[in-house]
Amino acid sequence: MWVFKCFLSFLYLLVYLKTVTVTLFQQTRRYFSLSLRTCTYWKIREDSKDLRKVPRHISFVVLESDINFVDLAHLIVWSMAMTIQYISLYDREGLLKKNAAALSSEIIKKQKEVFQEESSKFTFVLRTKDVKFDCELLAPTQVCITLLSEKDGKGDIVEAAREFCEEVQTKKRATKEMEPDYLNSLLKATCGMPDPDLALKFGSFKMIMGFLPWQTRLTEFLPLTTHINIHYSTFVASLRRYGDCQQRCGK
């Protein structure tokens, strides 16, 4: 009998130790996770000097069912600190567009945390294709953040083609005027913006799910499992991979 009681006591001790170990592990992991994600503006600026090249336009393609605005705000603010002036965010259903105010609020919060006393020197413009903004007139400390959905891909191309056909029909344009640069000017979702240099694709899908088929001819796509709880180190590693890749442009 006493052997059975000792055995139960031993099992209880093992369960208790396991519970304590798991709790300590989770708390430690959460601590280091927050530490890795909390970086100052000056540290990010130093890290940017070690990169071979920094994209002029970076896209975050979210192909996950859950979208975390706090984590996206981290990615945006880190990009701002890297002096990336053009940032675009894509989700197929347009959830980001519908909640633009909430996203903007999170960006402002994270910007104050990361930039600290430098925060007031940097501003951003949050836009969709319905918001007219001349991106070419950006100030050195101003960032253009564009929210995109599936309608801004093929749908935008269809609208541009329809507009051009109407101009040809009314003899305002000739068919020979349809060239890549002119088509770019008709695409409202990315009007005035350079094409994405780098796109970080979050999710398990092996496709881009309607993301800008025309503007991404030369875009470097890097797949990542998720944007949830993403670390700053993962973001920097992705920029290093982009800097090391050789873009042959079809050659």
Automatic annotation (TrEMBL):
It catalyses: n isopentenyl diphosphate + (2E,6E)-farnesyl diphosphate = a di-trans,poly-cis-polyprenyl diphosphate + n diphosphate. Keywords: Endoplasmic reticulum, Magnesium, Membrane, Transferase, Transmembrane, Transmembrane helix. Transmembrane segments: none annotated. Its EC number is 2.5.1.87. Pathway: Protein modification; protein glycosylation. InterPro entries: Nus1/NgBR (IPR038887), UPP_synth-like (IPR001441), UPP_synth-like_sf (IPR036424). Its cofactor is Mg(2+). It is found in: Endoplasmic reticulum membrane. Belongs to the UPP synthase family. This is ditrans,polycis-polyprenyl diphosphate synthase [(2E,6E)-farnesyldiphosphate specific]. It comes from Porites evermanni. The lineage of its organism: Eukaryota, Metazoa, Cnidaria, Anthozoa, Hexacorallia.
